[in-house]
Amino acid sequence: MDILKRFDDNTSKILNAGGKIRAFLDELTDKQSFVEWDVFLSGKDEVSGADALGEGVITGYATIDGWPVYLFLQNYEVKSGGFSLAQGKKIVKAIDKAVKAGIPFVSVIDSAGARLGEGIGVLEGYGSVIAAASELAESVPHIAVIKGPAVGVMSAYASLADFVFVSEKDGYASLNAPMAVTAAAGKAVPSAEAFGAKALTAGGLADFTFADAKSLSVKLSELFSYLYDTEESEDDLNRTEETVNSAYSAEAAIKAVADGGNYLKLKGGYAPEIITALAKIGGRTVGFLATDIAKNGGYISKKGISKATGFVKLLSAIGAPLITLTDSLGAEISLSDELSGLAAEAGALLKAVASSTSFKIAVIAGKAIGFAYLAFASKGLGYDYSLAFAGAAISPLNPETAVEVEFSKEIASAKDPAAARTKLLKKYNDELADPFVSAKDGYVDNIIEPKNLRPYLASILETL
Q1: Are 235 and 192 in a shared domain?
Q2: In terms of domains, do 296 and 205 share one?
Q3: pLDDT of residue 347
């Protein structure tokens, strides 16, 4: 009887200390699908001597709308979700199981930071979790959910995930203590406002926001549906879209090509001149990396380059083909970007593309100038197949700029400089920037009408 009473008492302590997070878990996962591990594991705070049954983190296996996942959920009700060495061991064990099973991993973060009473041991715990997360990135999709605070190393941990969700109401992330950061800035701003959902989506850490556990469950199910190929699609692979011929835009083109016109946009609030999205063509998962010439003056910012780099690496990790849609004047001409590492970011993107194991299809939809052509269409960099629309312009420099540079003396000495500039621009476009010139040199495989993009891409993907 004593043993049963002790079991009941300890079980009661665990459940009572995790009422809110367990309610969240119940709404997030399918009914009666969750299987928990290391329920009673606990370490001890070397300063207070107090223990924490379950170590303030729940780990286990479940399904979300039928999709299997391994996961951990930090419990803010136990020592403010404080990270400990024992908590780290539970998390690493869960990650290892996900890697071995080849099943996606979901990290629900809700922690005010480390338990300082453990001393240097807590940093070793963080180290083991970061190492495990790095291995996870090479194996299965990792989704981080910032449910509440992600303070300290857990904010960096979230950045290692393939996809990041943040609570619209309570989620925030900060590497340093929020109060210290706002104090240093001379502003007293609530953490959820200074480091919350709006800041994290604008800063590029978070891909999506969510309102509650139910909405998170729906969004995770949608994401999983894009991460895996399906056997077939009811959408006609030969479907054409006349509207793209008359009014091209990057998002309109993605919609025209994707099965059912559906796609999932990632990091939509960050560097809008670069569009990153998951979609399906004939049931096959693909990634679209498009430039939007209507944003940022037609140029790609340092942030945009970083966004593109992360997406290329993601597609390589999940084994999805990369399709680029290029209409851009190239890298942004910015002194501040140059001085803060634009060249290094550009190099990182070029390296990511060159080393990517994804099948890569380039579509030159409009202007492909300088760095934009090199990063998103160059055969030399590793693009397997390239298409161009008939009205595209491919050039080392923007044609208008190229004419000013190459023919400045001729324009200046002309009787009518404006007429001379117009004539030279037409000559440049016809003889150098025209996509047929690139096709003759073997740099473009085919020139097509925009409306035929879906049939052409579907046909190319069928060869994989």
Answers
A1: no
A2: no
A3: 98
pLDDT for 430 equals: 67
181, 197, 222 — which closes off a domain? 222
Three-class HEC string of the chain: CHHHHHHHHHHHHHHHCCHHHHHHHHHHCCCCCCEEECCCCCCECCCCCCECHHHHEEEEEEEECCEEEEEEEECCCCHHHCECHHHHHHHHHHHHHHHHHCCCEEEEEEECCECHHHCHHHHHHHHHHHHHHHHHHCCCCEEEEEEEEEECHHHHHHHCCCEEEEECCCCEEECCCHHHHHHHCCCCCCHHHHCCHHHHHHCCCCCEEECCHHHHHHHHHHHHHHHCCCCCCCCCCCCCCHHHHHCCCHHHHHHHHCHHHCEEEECCCCCCCEEEEEEEECCEEEEEEEECCCCHHHCECHHHHHHHHHHHHHHHHHCCCEEEEEEECCECCCHHHHHCCHHHHHHHHHHHHHHCCCCEEEEEEEEEECHHHHHHHCCCCCCCEEEEECCCEEECCCHHHHHHHHCHHHHHHCCCHHHHHHHHHHHHHHHHHCHHHHHHCCCCCEEECHHHHHHHHHHHHHCC
Query: What CATH number does the domain containing 237 carry?
Result: 3.90.226.10
For residues 360 and 276, membership in a common domain is answered with yes
**What are 6-31's pLDDT values in tens digits?**
444 444 444 445 679 999 999 999 99
- Name the pTM for this structure: 0.86
